[in-house]
């Protein structure tokens, strides 16, 4: 490498100042015969300049910038060896005035030698915090004890059309898979004087297991059975679950899926 002359040092400094100035003004410095508008002041571009101008000094300065940047980048990866956080999950509390949890996670490479190239052993970090549920959407009522938002739809539809209807609200047919949810379903049906309504729950044959699109099997989840005596009656086509009040009390009934009833949507 040739010796750096005083002229080159002076020129280099003047040149760099010129670059700073024209960068910040986002202008074109035509005075030196070089168009550098908008160009990033980084080591690579100094090296390119140096090559273009055959300037040892610029190449030297450029190379030291490149090395400097590499060191800074390595420091940054070691200080923050993790990818970005995932978005927060939805709050476990659904209705306003209820508090729940939400969580997010990210992947980290905690072994120093892997921090920059993101290879090798990964560690997943989780973070949780409190959150408040949001208000129920318009036309839905909040049932705080069941932590849910419900709507009784008075239109009579068959079971699958009812599920589709709820889906259009971003919801689903209500699954009464906790005692609180069962109570909420009784409350909403009583207050609307509805005696039969679809809820979540279908089976492919009378001997098959009940399947729920949302939540769990209520009894498996600890809900005491709400089947009326003699129910499910297991009629060959009675493959969908409803809530029915034959006299004073609401119960689960199996009913033919193409029958049309009101239904309860949950969001
Ligand atoms: C660059 O400079 C060196 C020495 O100063 C010279 O030998 C070489 O020919 C020059 N190259 C160009 C492309 O001008
Ligand atoms: C979170 O809520 C939004 C809006 O209600 C919904 O579209 C999305 O599917 C939910 N995400 C999860 C993971 O439940
Ligand atoms: C990642 O970097 C480390 C040290 O910096 C090195 O030993 C390892 O081989 C690199 N792995 C890959 C896949 O480049
Ligand atoms: C459900 O309602 C019944 C009758 O009103 C009540 O006795 C019971 O405590 C309620 N259960 C829950 C979990 O709220
Ligand atoms: C349910 O209703 C929809 C819309 O009216 C209809 O297309 C579908 O065939 C019905 N399904 C059953 C099982 O009755």
Automatic annotation (TrEMBL):
<feature type="signal peptide">
    <location>
        <begin position="1"/>
        <end position="27"/>
    </location>
</feature>
<keyword id="KW-0732">Signal</keyword>
<dbReference type="InterPro" id="IPR016187">
    <property type="entry name" value="CTDL_fold"/>
</dbReference>
<feature type="domain" description="C-type lectin">
    <location>
        <begin position="145"/>
        <end position="266"/>
    </location>
</feature>
<dbReference type="InterPro" id="IPR001304">
    <property type="entry name" value="C-type_lectin-like"/>
</dbReference>
<dbReference type="InterPro" id="IPR050801">
    <property type="entry name" value="Ca-Dep_Lectins_ImmuneDev"/>
</dbReference>
<dbReference type="InterPro" id="IPR000884">
    <property type="entry name" value="TSP1_rpt"/>
</dbReference>
<dbReference type="Pfam" id="PF00059">
    <property type="entry name" value="Lectin_C"/>
</dbReference>
<protein>
    <recommendedName>
        <fullName>C-type lectin domain-containing protein</fullName>
    </recommendedName>
</protein>
<dbReference type="InterPro" id="IPR016186">
    <property type="entry name" value="C-type_lectin-like/link_sf"/>
</dbReference>
<dbReference type="InterPro" id="IPR036383">
    <property type="entry name" value="TSP1_rpt_sf"/>
</dbReference>
């Amino acid at each position: 490498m040739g010796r750096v002359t005083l002229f080159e040092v002076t020129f280099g400094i003047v040149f760099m100042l010129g670059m700073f100035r024209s960068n910040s003004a986002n202008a074109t410095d035509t005075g030196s015969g070089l168009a550098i508008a908008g160009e990033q002041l980084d080591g690579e571009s100094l090296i390119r300049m140096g090559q273009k101008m055959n300037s040892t000094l610029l190449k030297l300065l450029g190379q030291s910038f490149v090395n400097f940047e590499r060191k800074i980048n390595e420091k940054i990866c070691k200080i923050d060896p993790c990818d970005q956080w995932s978005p927060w999950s939805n709050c476990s509390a659904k209705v306003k005035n209820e508090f729940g949890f939400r969580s997010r996670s990210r992947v980290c490479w905690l072994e120093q030698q892997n921090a920059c190239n993101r290879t090798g052993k990964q560690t997943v970090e989780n973070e949780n915090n409190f959150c408040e549920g949001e208000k129920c959407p318009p036309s839905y009522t909040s049932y705080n004890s069941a932590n849910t938002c419900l709507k009784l739809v008075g239109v009579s539809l068959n079971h699958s059309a009812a599920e589709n209807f709820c889906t259009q609200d971003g919801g689903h047919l209500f699954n009464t898979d906790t005692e609180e949810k069962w109570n909420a379903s009784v409350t909403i049906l009583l207050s609307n004087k509805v005696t039969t309504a679809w809820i979540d729950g279908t089976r492919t044959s009378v001997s098959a297991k009940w399947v729920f699109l949302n939540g769990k099997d209520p009894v498996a989840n600890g809900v005491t059975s709400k089947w009326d005596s003699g129910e499910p009656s297991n009629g060959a086509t009675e493959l969908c679950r409803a809530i029915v009040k034959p006299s004073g009390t609401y119960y689960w009934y199996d009913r033919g899926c193409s029958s049309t009833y009101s239904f309860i949507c949950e969001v």
